[in-house]
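Practice set, problem 2.
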Amino acid sequence: GRQPKRWGIIDSGAAIRKAKQLLETYDIHIDVSQPLSAFSVAVQQIAAIARGVDLSAKILILDEPTSSLDANEVKTLFTVIRSLKEKGIGILLITHFLDQVYEISNRITILRNGIKVAEHLTKELPRMQLVSEMLGKELIEELSPKKERKLIKENVFLKVQGLGKRSVMEPFDLEIRKGEIVGLAGLLGSGRTETAQLIFGITHRDTGQMSVNGSNVTFNSPRQAILHGFGLCPEDRKAEGIIGDLSIRENIILALQAKRGWLRFLSRKKQENLANEMIKALHIATPDSQKVVKELSGGNQQKVILARWLVSEPEFLILDEPTRGIDVGAHAEIIGIIKDLCDRGMPLLVISSELAEVVDYSDRVVVLRDRKKVTELLGDDISQNSIMKAIAES
């Protein structure tokens, strides 16, 4: 009901003039008669802000407004935000990007698990303290003996050079050797899952290249990654991992059947044999392979997802939060499986928000911040403190 009207009818010409004038206030010069979807995400964000201001808003809530923007678009958006601050409009900015928090905010409120844990003036809050409060961990004096980490001398299985996608992940390099566990650490929103999806072909890269065992590869789909011996256990097992209404058997054979193609269909007897082998090997608590997966505990569901990849005889596994939301017993079993696969020579990329866990099993740790790779830690440099410091550094 805010559109300008003439004789009771919407005046399109006046509406276009008003919209154009409003956006030009924020240095946005576009054809406002075009669909908003035709323009960049940055322009869409600023248009939404302009609408709020035109409604005489006193407070604007911006929920992850920079999550899909590149560096130049972030600068444009921040210029607009600063101009609104000068006009006395309050801004509540919700974000995971630490550098942006320090660049634009006056005060920082920290939430963890849905609870407010602290509030500080930005200029008085050291980055290390911010990371510590976000993670719920204090810097600890690590007096326990250092884990003896093996020096991996095997051939490079996966080599990534300059892999990235605009507004998703900054280009990064990565090498993973046979028999090596590389841990991927960072805060929520740092780019951990995005890295896994780029490598596995879920997200299409626009820069960089990958090689497997020395040969260049391009994955335009997860199936191409599977055909090259890759497997991915996703972060959200219920939404992206298991198919809850199918049986254990049906879930376990999915990746192998995709690898074989539907013209080489696995017989029912073969499916049952494979499922029963995995149930026994991974200690999946079930009376038989016909039990519906959604009726299993979280830990047993995670084992079913692992079993799905193991029956396909993968050469490389990406495990995204493999121990999230499972009980202590299942947690220990999953960690044991990860270490056993590594001992058998399989290269693994393991993503976890549990720093103690990453430190425990990793031969090398890659630290991400604000969707960029910031450092790699090796040998005695791997500790919870060193990971937290790498996350906090500006």
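Problem 2, part (b): a different protein.
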Amino acid sequence: MQVTKTSAFPLSRVCLALALVAGGLGGAPAWADEARLLMDGPATRITTADVNADAQRMPEDVRPVILSQPQQVQQIVSNLYVRRALADDAEKQGLGKTPEVQAVLQLARDKVLSDAWIEQVRERSRLPAQVAEAQARSLYNAKPERFEQAEQVQVRHILVAGDTPESKAKAEELLAQLKTGADFAELAKANSADKGSGAKGGDLGYFSRGRMVPEFDKVAFALDKPGALSDLVKTQFGYHILRLEGRKPAGTKPYLEVREQLLAEVQDKAAQDAITAEADKLRAAAKPHTDAIRSFSESVKKP
């Protein structure tokens, strides 16, 4: 049993070129009207608009987690202040006028604006709900083998870590309490060495054969009905007590279980088709200078 740890988002690794170009993109973001000052100093100032703009690079599911923590926001604000102060100083020194920096700034600007264009095309190409639903069902019916699943069980467990007489005695005591009606979830929260599942009352969710260590796996799938308790199960992690919560037989997942996934797929395909069509038009209208390209490649090969 491994407890998954979520690593911290690398707030400090941001491309300086994007910071330099941000002020020249034109047009303020929707949230800029109500920007509030978060940090100011002799060099520059940082507002909520800056933090929100910077946060767009974060995954959507991570964004609210990071921005709801004042310490994380303070670190972001501090990083943005230093970055902008450095950028302003670089401009004063004329560093922004060198060909190398100008090229990087142009590429950064191109990337930001082309990404904005792609998002616009994505929104414009969204399929109506009825069309998306029909296509999703068609996908489901065309390849049902995609949605086949092996037998799965849902199990709660309590882990008493260690391989000592004391560990075993504690596990036996907990098992005895469970057999006399103690609440499994509460005992797991209070006693399980697996803190990840322990916080959820020992719930490991549904899993198929082979996901857990062999000793655990064998017992989990041998439990015959919801509520059934195992005896002590010894693994490399210590002593486990298992309780079966549910079982899903092998078979094809029902459409409703995979509907959201399929709707996302058909919308993504519609967007990608629209983006590809536009990009192909642009490429078709352009002429590559093959001699210049070959010459450039040859110059790079030379020591």
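Answer key, part (b): Strands lie at 37-40, 45-47, 148-149, 152-161, 203-208, 233-235, 238-248, 251-252. The chain has twelve helices and eight strands.
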